[in-house]
Write a structure and sequence with these properties.
The complex is a heterodimer of chains A (about 350) and B (about 550).
Chain A: H1 17-24, H2 41-44, H3 46-76, E1 82-85, E2 89-92, H4 93-119, E3 126-129, H5 137-154, H6 160-172, H7 174-180, E4 206-210, E5 227-232, H8 242-249, E6 251-255, H9 264-269, E7 274-278, E8 290-292, E9 297-299, E10 306-308, E11 314-317, E12 326-327, E13 329-331, E14 337-339
Helix pairs in contact in A: 3-4
Chain B: H1 2-11, H2 24-36, H3 38-45, E1 49-50, H4 57-77, E2 86-88, E3 100-102, H5 103-113, H6 118-145, H7 154-176, H8 181-195, H9 201-209, H10 218-248, E4 262-267, H11 268-293, H12 299-302, H13 321-329, E5 334-337, E6 340-343, H14 344-371, H15 387-407, H16 409-416, H17 420-459, E7 461-468, E8 474-479, H18 483-490, H19 515-528, H20 539-546
Antiparallel strand pairs in B: 1-4, 2-3, 5-6, 7-8
Helix pairs in contact in B: 4-6, 4-11, 5-6, 6-7, 6-11, 7-10, 7-14, 13-14, 13-15, 15-17
Classes of the chains: A alpha+beta (about 350), B mainly alpha (about 550).
The complex binds FE2/S2 (inorganic) cluster.
FE2/S2 (inorganic) cluster binds next to loops of chain A.
Chain lengths: ~350, ~550
């Protein structure tokens, strides 16, 4: 043994004589058995016990007062009253008062009960026997015997045809449940491949409408380095399907000095440096909102996919798997920005049928 | 006739020969016993013994927060309108006046601003849910690190795991119901994840949402699942969980008088009743106070959901943070072929999420397979005495935390002025490296503690008394440990690693050892072999040292 223990293990370190005795029985680590109960202060000193009793009652009384306070707050404080409380800031006065009074009322019941249990109820530890969870062999044999008798009487093992058809029918019947789920929704068909912009054709182009002003836009309204959000003309906020439409149609328009556009195809799809990209992230569909003027990078706030808008919205960081789809835009006779067709590929998150 | 008569009259004598009840309460109890059999029920349970340890209250917190969630949840359903029908808001919160929103959002606003106490109940509900999931996780770790999941409790471990999984899921759904900007973003995330499922993704999405995103069905459907389906299943699991706890009886720490065959503690009535009952009120009281002081999910600050808008710091509740981390660190791989797209960037994290959880769920079966131990265990392991298990648990937690960092990378970046890209790269590497490092450190730490225990048993504890020996050396006096300590420190088992059967049997014929057996032997050596435990002191070693002439 590498341990350096010199002569020097002095008598004190061997403990008292009593322990030597136990050790000499053979097993030095034997279980000494449950220790004797040690009385608490409250067990021997009646004054301490009385004090504990008063403490417990006091807590219950505080609880009663707090409940009264709760009811009083409910009646007296207006629901819309806002107060300033340091360091919380502006909070609802009613919420604050109700919550604290309820908290105190409940906490004091709990604290009283626990204090009572700890100081005044008996703290004698008692052992209880455990029984093995497993049954003994006799019970086991008996049960198996009974089961066998039952199985034999049913003829389940003998009548193979009944058994097999039963299993078959039981296996099939849950299918009805699955089939019933079919009418939860329509089939996807080609719905995800199109957006509201597919109403646009070269003959009937669809104007781009500014999301904030609700007005069609001219090219000169969009300054270089700015990001503008747009929707198709005719889509109004109080339309029944507005939410569903805007989830696919939302556009972001960015204007980049033409010499800074790296992707030539992308420049073609735009108009004098104005590029119209889907605002819906191709990762899982958050709207993209953060734009860095100098780099032309757009960042999705949800999982930080970063797209280079000067380079065909290529993904340069983050979990998105493909670039943002771009909408081909031009201007009509009056000089308003219009789209002449739908996106070339589906917008938003990718899915199995997306080619 | 008369014989029959006498027989019936004999039988019709009042069956009960019980003495008259001493008071009203006994009379009521007698009445109930005649119908419900309460005495037999109470006989076994009234003085049932519960051992006491502070960590046993973690499970209680889970139970109590669950009750609080149900109580407040019922209250909220009285006011909440789970509809995606659009209305224009005219309530007492001025900044949103005249804004279009769903009825779900509008009714949540009313609960927060017009129903007296509504905000409080909403806050208690949400806080309790957060505490619930946190407590389940910590409770589960307590059970894990002490080995309380071993036979006969494996099934209950699975029940507990399912409760955690369902709890997280139901929390996510509840978070989605108010239809505010954050919750809508969460649903959008779910939609993208479902779409990423190969082959059937679009169909699942259309059936779940009743059409395209967002449609008008998803919130009413979530509502039913959130308040009925999942809680219903959870109540069932919870009852089963508690019945098993009752049936198995509590585990206990090794100590004087405590064996595998008994349970030492205080009786249900009165001590445990008072303590546990009181603790319910403590938990409820604290959560109420939290709801009064700390705002959680202030939906009015986010505004109603619109698919083309998003608020900054889009964050799920913390327990979903690790799935958020997975999705953020995954590179955006997409495989496109034959007119199809496989979205690995979303699908892979979607698969890893349940896997990370499931690994911990199946652990008890792995360990019992490796150890081959088929005995019942009621005495808890001290974490240091199972270094590999403790290391694995710590590694798992570290993985969870690394992913949480990944999930909060934007918050960390803005608060600590770091580059968000750097944090993501760090987490990508950390995902693989940090759990390994954590495992190694934890295991060594455990071994160090075992070594210290060994020293304490053999050489006693340090007393702080310095003695000078005749030849001038200074030594610290060690005092022999009392018997109960000695017992406690040596009570644990040290399983031996499994040995492979000999390559060649006694007839010289090559014995076939299956790959499974080989793996098992390997794992067994990893768990219990050299370097995974410090041999605990034997009685002989102790004798030799304590007999007074223990010179080395
Ligand atoms: S949705 Fe945009 S990065 Fe995930």
């Amino acid at each position: 043994m590498s341990h350096d223990m010199s002569e020097d293990k002095l008598p004190e370190s061997h403990g008292s004589a009593g322990q030597h005795e136990v050790a000499s029985h053979g097993d030095p680590f034997a279980d000494p058995g449950l220790p004797a109960h040690e009385p608490r202060r409250t067990d021997i000193d009646e004054r301490a016990a009385k004090r504990a009793e008063r403490q417990v009652s006091l807590m219950f009384v505080v609880s009663m007062l707090a409940t009264v306070g709760f009811i009083a707050s409910y009646v007296a404080i207006d629901a819309d009253k806002i107060v300033y409380i340091f360091p919380l800031g502006h909070v609802s006065a009613l919420n604050f008062a109700l919550g604290l009074t309820l908290g105190v009322a409940l906490f004091c019941i709990g604290a009283g009960a626990v204090h009572w249990a700890r100081t005044l109820m008996s703290d004698h530890e008692l052992p209880a026997e455990r029984h093995p969870i497993e049954a003994d062999d006799e019970v086991r044999a008996d049960v198996i015997e009974q089961f066998k008798t039952g199985a034999a009487e049913s003829g389940f093992g003998r009548r193979k045809m009944i058994r097999n058809t039963l299993i078959g029918s039981m296996a099939l019947v849950p299918l009805s449940g699955v089939v019933l789920l079919r009418d939860l929704g329509p089939l996807p068909e080609k719905k995800l491949q199109h957006t509201g912009w597919d109403l646009a054709t070269p003959e009937h182009p669809l104007p781009l409408v500014n999301m904030n002003t609700n007005k069609p836009m001219k090219a000169e309204d969009i300054v270089v380095g700015s990001l503008t959000f747009a929707k198709p003309e005719g889509l109004e906020e109080d339309d029944e399907t507005f939410q569903q439409q805007i989830a696919k149609d939302a556009l972001m328009l960015v204007r980049i000095a033409p010499e800074n556009i790296k992707d030539k195809d992308s420049a073609e799809l735009g108009f004098e440096g104005i590029l119209a990209y889907s605002k819906i992230c191709t990762h899982v569909g958050c709207p993209i909102s953060l734009y860095e003027q100098q780099t032309h990078h757009a960042l999705c706030p949800c999982h930080q996919s970063t797209f280079d808008l000067a380079d065909g919205a290529r993904v340069i960081f983050g979990p998105a798997g493909h670039p943002l789809p771009q909408l081909k835009i031009t201007t009509n006779e009056e000089g308003f920005l219009v789209a002449t067709g739908d996106f070339a590929e589906p917008v938003g998150p990718s899915f199995w049928e997306r080619s | 006739m008369s014989a029959a008569n006498s027989a019936t009259s004999g039988a019709s004598k009042p069956a009960s020969t019980r003495e008259k009840p001493a008071n009203k309460a006994e009379a009521v109890a007698d009445w109930a016993d005649g119908r419900l059999g309460i005495y037999s029920l109470a006989k076994a349970n009234l003085r049932k013994i519960f051992p006491d340890h502070w960590s046993f209250m973690l499970g209680e917190i889970c139970l109590y927060t669950f009750i609080i969630i149900i109580l407040t949840g019922v209250y909220l359903t009285l006011f909440f309108n789970p509809s995606m029908g659009e209305v224009v808001y005219h309530g007492s919160y001025a900044p949103l006046n005249g804004i279009r929103m769903s009825e779900a959002y509008a009714s949540t606003m009313d609960i927060s601003f017009d129903v007296r106490g509504g905000l409080l109940i909403r806050q208690i509900h949400h806080w309790a849910a957060i505490v619930f999931v946190a407590a389940m996780l910590v409770h589960m770790m307590r059970v894990f690190f002490t080995g309380a999941f071993r036979k006969p409790r494996e099934v209950n471990w699975i029940f507990g795991f399912l409760l955690l999984f369902l709890g997280m899921f139901d929390g996510f759904m509840g978070y989605s119901l108010p239809d505010d900007l954050l919750s809508g973003t969460g649903i959008r995330f779910m939609e993208g994840a479902i779409l990423a499922v190969p082959l059937v993704g679009t169909y699942l999405q259309f059936f779940l949402f009743g059409g395209e995103f967002p449609g008008t069905d998803i919130i009413p459907r979530f509502f039913t699942i959130h308040i009925l389906l999942i809680p219903g299943v959870m109540v069932g699991l919870l009852v089963a969980h508690l019945i098993l706890v009752f049936y198995h009886k509590h585990t206990q720490w090794a100590g004087p008088g405590k064996t595998e065959k008994n349970v030492v503690g205080m009786p249900l009535m009165p001590v445990y009743m008072a303590k546990a009952g009181g603790f319910f009120f403590l938990v409820f009281g604290i959560i109420s106070a939290m709801a009064a002081i700390a705002t959680v999910n202030p939906i009015w600050a986010y505004g109603p959901y619109r698919p083309d808008q998003v608020s900054t710091d889009a964050q799920p509740d913390w327990y979903m943070g690790f799935s958020e981390g997975l999705i953020r660190i995954m590179p955006g791989w997409e495989i496109r072929a034959w007119g199809h797209t496989l979205n690995m960037g979303v699908f892979v994290p979607l698969m890893i999420f349940p896997l990370v959880l499931a690994v911990i769920a199946v652990y008890p079966f792995i360990e019992s397979w490796v150890s081959g131990d088929k005995r019942e265990h009621h005495i808890l392991d001290r974490p240091r005495n199972a270094p590999v298990r403790t290391g694995l648990g710590a590694a798992w937690i570290s993985l969870y935390l690394v992913l949480l960092i990944g999930g909060g990378n934007d918050l960390i970046a803005t608060h600590l002025h770091l580059s968000i890209n750097d944090i993501t790269y760090f987490v990508r590497v950390g995902f693989f490296v940090i759990p390994v490092i954590t495992f190694v450190i934890t295991k060594r730490w455990c071994l160090g503690l075992q070594r210290r225990d060994r020293d304490k048993v053999l050489h006693g504890r340090e007393t702080g008394v310095i003695k000078r020996l005749p030849h001038g050396e200074f030594v610290e006096v060690h005092a022999q440990l009392p018997q109960d300590k000695l017992h406690k420190l040596t009570a644990h088992d040290q399983p031996l690693p499994m040995e492979l059967p000999a390559e060649v049997d006694e007839n010289g014929v090559a014995a076939k050892t299956g790959i499974l057996t080989k793996t098992r032997a390997k794992l067994s050596h990893g768990f219990y072999g050299e370097g995974s435990q410090i041999a605990k002191p034997t009685a002989e070693e102790h004798h030799e040292i304590t007999s007074g002439h223990g010179h080395h």
